[in-house]
Sequence to fold (142 residues):
Amino acid sequence: MMQVHIRNAKGGKDRLIPLPQRTLLALRYYWQTHRHPRLMFPGKDGKTDSMIDKGGIQKALKRVIAECNIHKSISPHNLRHSYATHLLEQGLDLRSVQSLLGHNSLNTTARYTRLTQITRKNTALSVNQLTDNLALKWECDI
Fold:
């Protein structure tokens, strides 16, 4: 599995996160037009070792949201929450999401979860699948 090393992420932690093939292709396309000698996302001050800061990320996100004609207030934290929620909806276990987000406590990760329409449907489906295979005494007597 391909991974990206994120340095000094939220909480000052370094992380290895999965790199989907499609994201790699997008990053390669970006690199062709925004090449920097060392950094994928450099700061705007022109210094060689200057990395993009929190404000730069927020400005870039606002620009993308405007270009996509989205009229909601979206922050990097909202995206982080949505990422975690969608991973859980896709069936990824809570411990794996905890690791991806870099949380020390599972309780912190659990706060990202909420019972959405998709998870309600999947929960009902899973419960039904579990019980469908049970052999009940009254069914066996018929």
The mean pLDDT is 83.
